[in-house]
User: Fold this.
Amino acid sequence: MTRENAPFYASIDGYGGTGYLFTLSPGRGFRADGAGYNDVYGRNWLRGYGAEHPNRTGWVLHSHTTC
Assistant:
């Protein structure tokens, strides 16, 4: 589940999300596919998809989810 508005990115690099796609709404489902990544700021990113856009895989900050 998303805890709050969760910006959703096409990919990530060492500094965070790149290729902003859209924002997932709070309180909606999010399914992580097991991949994770830590950026240079120590933030953890998860790859997966949201209930609002199940056909699009991308990246969100772990802190924006309950995963």
Remarks:
- The mean pLDDT is 95.
- The chain is about 0% helix and 55% strand.
- The radius of gyration is 10 Å.
- The first strand starts at residue 6 and ends at 13.
